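Ticket reopened. Same input as before:
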Amino acid sequence: MTPAGLGARRDELAAVLDTLIPAADGFPESGGLALDHVLAIASASNQIGALLARALDAIDEATRAGGTRGFAERSAAEREELLRRLERSHPEAFEALVRHTYDGFYSHPATIARLGLEPGPVQPRGHRIEPAPAPDVARVAARGPIYRRA
Amino acid sequence: MATDERSDVLVIGAGASGAAVAWRLATAGIGVVCLEQGDWVDARAYPHWQADWELHRHTDWSAEPNVRRLPQDYPVNEQASAISPLMYNAVGGSTIHWSAHFPRFRPSDFRVKSLDGVADDWPIDYATLEPYFDLNDRMMGIAGIVGDPAYPPKSPRQTPPIPLDTLGRTIVGGFEQLGWHWWPSDSAILTRDYDGRRACVNCGPCDLGCPIGAKASTDITYWPKALAAGARLVTRARVREITLGPDGLADGAVYYDRDGRERAQKARAVVLAANGIGTPRLLLNSRSPRFPDGLANRSGLVGRNLMFHPYAMARGLFERPLGGHRGPIGCSIISQEFYETDLARGFVRGYSFQVARGLSPIASANGGSVGDRVPWGRAHRRAYDERFDRTITVAVIGEDLPELHNRVELDPSLTDGNGIPVPRVSYRLSENSRRMLDHGIARAGEALRAAGAREVASNPLLRAGGWHLMGTARMGRDPATSVVDADGRCHDVPNLYIVDGSVMVTCAGVNPTSTIQAVALHVADGMIRRRA
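Engineering reply: fixed in the latest deploy. New output:
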């Protein structure tokens, strides 16, 4: 499986991503939000692309060994169990899968908005901090010098 | 080989110290040429202008050259190091990436041997550097508040301190409850417009640079003034070696220009400002019959005594949102409650606490500096939501002591894009530092719990924490036990100066840039006096 072929396995990859971050509490599953990022990373880096392809191959193999139903057709508990096996058997590939899924999901504007932040660039808008009185350092200052004279 | 016009002084490196020394010399009428292997950073190129800004932290804007791998970077073999060295190659150097936390060394930091019987005393002291601390503060623009009992009195800060906001007030509550020292951090980040620069808008990720110039990086502080005073700055100029004249004095450097052509820059004096790894690398690459073990290395100490500040991290989890995405990522408060030696603690010397802001969305998922990734699967949502915007991270910055086996050498086979051997770094954490960090983690946990944290997680040693590169060409009076003298002059080559973190005899328990720059200004004034 070459990295270039990963795009042909979009549905399979999306199902894996959905298992890593399932929909909950108003957040969508990660397949819809992180898939394009993961594919872009795989396309930009042969190394990462190969790792992710290896992960999908291993999932595919484990799924077939466990019956006729495909990965996406399994229950959430079954899919998680398959991925836990992958985590143990292919730690490097799994690490790449999780990291880039998290990266893609938590950089997506829909996720940022759902977290209560304003999506988009942090400049030029910045963030407003409510004005507050100067910090009260009286107790600390009253201790007097705590440095050694030298 | 093309040879450029001879200059009075050649400065190698345009970062924190190189910029300071170039400015000081140029304003005294001395001709300065600076060779910098990086480029100017275009303010429009910072990731803050893009929606996916956070993704860049671990790719093209990583602080790790081995991750970033830009053409102007050189690889560092760090396989034998417990800490990864961080640096940035550009006009401004690592001040492009730093968090701008700006404490100074304290008086006792220059008298470690006399006071505590370890390491060595510096040949200069706090009083010598004090006017340069103040001058440098004015050049960089410091937000803060005077009166900190952890220091001798300081001159007024240029702007009020960075706001504490909810997160800062929360952790202050813990320190207050324990009766411990804390103080709003001196930060090289403006909270009001100053010296033609804009105030911070609290966007957050200062570690990716500051696109509006509120954070002091020397490309926007020292360099415009140095260039106005006549200094010349050549970018994408990677120095291969420092050259010697027949009199044994430094007479310039050979470098590769941006097109890869070999050139020579001649000068009457040379100043090295290439950081605590780049400087020994360059000296070791400058071998000659007169200096077969590397230039200015008759002591054998070039590259030895490498000090990082080992960092341990403690992170508290709180019940309520803390607004941690607002404000400069690395600047809130500092505590020096455990800074001076108390042998009852089980170690010599001490550490600071640096309280950072909260974790951004991706960092929250991946565990930030603690590295405990939020679990995947059906447990993910709840675990993430319990963490996001509900954490405070306390960094324990320990004073590393110089040890000969911690060192920078040349890698026997690995080279950079110009075929120049790259550094190989060996570093292991000492027992003293380990005990110090363990003490710090425990005390940080106390402070976090006193502030209301319901859980505390920790990282005993931050691997990607080698921000501070020090000690590899140490300062001293004895040529047998040091590389440069109290004026930054190499004992072996008196017109060759070093002004970066390499010269630090000890590293204190605070971020070093303020002190590095003060030393650079002190060295520059010595050069000016001798020229007069």
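Chain A has one domain: 3-120. Chain A has seven helices and no strands. Please confirm and we'll close it.
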